[in-house]
Amino acid sequence: ELGLVTPGESKPGRVYSPVCLYPLRRLFIASDRWTNPDGSPYTPGADVVYPAITRNTYRFLGLLPSAPCERLLDLCSGSGVAALLAASGGARLAWAVDITSRSTRFAGFNRLLNGVANLTALEGDLYEPVAKLAFDRIVAHPPYLPSAATRWIFQDAGVQGEEITRRIVEGLPDHLT
User: Fold this and answer.
1) What are phi and psi of 162, to 5 degrees?
2) Which residues of 38-72 are buried (b: 16+ CB within 10 A; e: fewer)?
3) Which of 71, 111, 117, 160 is deepest in the core (most CB within 10 A)?
4) Is the dihedral of CA 4, 105, 94, 111 positive or negative?
């Protein structure tokens, strides 16, 4: 169901994995690849799961507080990397929420891959799946690039590029302890 193995287009009879698996700090993370290993053309879908091994993601992770907390919410979670790091390093409970089912499945897979029992991966629009919950810490790595049309959900954030970030900030009073 995750599409971890797929037939190669340029070499019939061969299969490859469109998934990238890599170490990040004390974890292993799976996300989508940006190329096909067999050299065939690759066009990522709109719900492509952004790899956590980019300078942009390292910068985001470097800004996260490392002090323990009771309950952490990771919005726009993608592969779930921020929630996974928190849940395996000090958060008693963590939630990873993403609007795409593909990212939610990857976050759940990464939870199982790393044996992290105190993380819940949920699909939905920002706070909607955790509407009745409150958290000590809320982190987010939202889409922020202005775009008239959505090519990639992880990146394109509407005409002004601020809509999702504004909605995150607006929801803080109802969800932050």
Assistant:
1) -120, -5
2) eeeeeebeeebbbbbeeeebeebbeeeeeeebebb
3) 111
4) negative
Residue (of 48, 37, 44) closest to 10 by Cα position:
37
Q: Are 60 and 85 in contact (CB under 8 A)?
A: no
The whole-number average pLDDT for the span 79-89 is: 96
pLDDT at 106: 95
What angle (nearest 5°) sits at the alpha carbon of residue 70, between those of residues 65 and 74? 55
140, β-bridge pairs: 75
- At 175, give phi and psi (nearest 5°): -130, -5
3-state secondary structure of 174: helix
Instruction: Give per-residue pLDDT as tens, 125-136.
Output: 999 999 999 999
